[in-house]
Amino acid sequence: ADELGQHIAGVLDRDRVAEGVQALFEMGLLGQGLDRDAAAETGVRHRGIVDDTGYPGNRARRDARPAAPHRMPMNLKPLYLPPDGRPRCAWCAAAPGDADYLRYHDEEWGRPVADEFRLFEKLCLEGFQSGLSWRTILNKREAFRAAFAGFDYHRVAAFGPADVARLLADSGIVRHRGKIEA
Predict the structure, then answer these.
(1) How many structural domains does the chain have?
(2) Do both 70 and 124 map to the same domain?
(3) Which GO BP terms apply (predicted)?
(4) Is 89 annotated to bind ligand?
C-alpha cells in the first residue's frame, strides 16, 4: 500500500502518473477497485467512488454501499493500454494504432498553453469538433492551419465574406457555415 501512495499521491507530472498507473497494474489494484479505507491507507487523495454509471451520486448512498470490484476512484477510471504498454485515457482506444492520436494525448491533451496563437487554434478546433470526433479534427488540423492563416487571430479577425466563401469550398476542413462564421 505504501508503494502505491509513493507512485500516486500528489503526482502532477504525466510521466509520473503513467508510472503510478503502471504500478497499479503491477500490484493488481487496477480494475479491482479501491474503497475509501484502502485509499486512505495508500495515501491516495480520495475524490469519491463512482459506480459503473460514472456518476458519484449521493454521498450517503455511496458510503452505504459496500466496495465492489467494478468500482475505483474516479481519477483512475477508465484506462487504455495500447501495444506500447503506456497507459492512456480510455478515449485513445477510439483510434487504436493511430500514432497522431496517441501523440496528441501524450504531448498536448491536458497541458497548459501559453502561446496566444496555439490557444486560439485550440479554441477554434474545439468549436469545429462539436458533434464530430476529435480524431476527425486532428486529421484535418494541417488543413485548418492553412485555411485559417496559421490561426493568427489578427488575420482571422479581418476575414470577410470572401473568406467565408473560400472556407466553405475548402474540402480539407469542416465546412459548416455556423462554425466558420463563429
Answers:
(1) 2
(2) no
(3) base-excision repair
(4) yes
Which residue's C-alpha cell is 503502471? 22
In a 3-state reduction of DSSP, which class is residue 12?
coil
Q: Are 43 and 9 in contact (CB under 8 A)?
A: yes
21 found inside a domain: yes
Q: Is residue 147 part of a domain?
A: yes
Domain ends where: 47, 77, 107? 77
Give the domain range for residue 58.
2-77
Would the annotation count 92 as a binding residue? no
Residue of 26, 116, 126, 142 marked active site = 126
Exposed / middle / buried, residue 17 (Cβ in 10 Å: 0-12, 13-18, 19+): middle
Catalytic site residue 104? yes
Q: φ and ψ at 25, to 5 degrees?
A: -60, -50
Query: Per residue in 106-147, pLDDT tens?
Result: 999 988 999 999 999 999 999 999 999 889 999 999 999 999
> What is the C-alpha to C-alpha distance for residues 149 and 130, in angstroms, rounded to an integer?
21
User: 155-172: per-residue pLDDT in tens?
Assistant: 999 999 999 999 999 999
CB 110 within 8 A of CB 104: no
- Cβ-contact 73, 37 below 8 angstroms: no
Cα(72)–Cα(41) distance, rounded to whole angstroms?
15
- The model's pLDDT over 57-77, given as tens digits with 9 standing for 90+, comes to 555 555 555 554 444 455 555
Q: Is 134 a catalytic residue?
A: yes
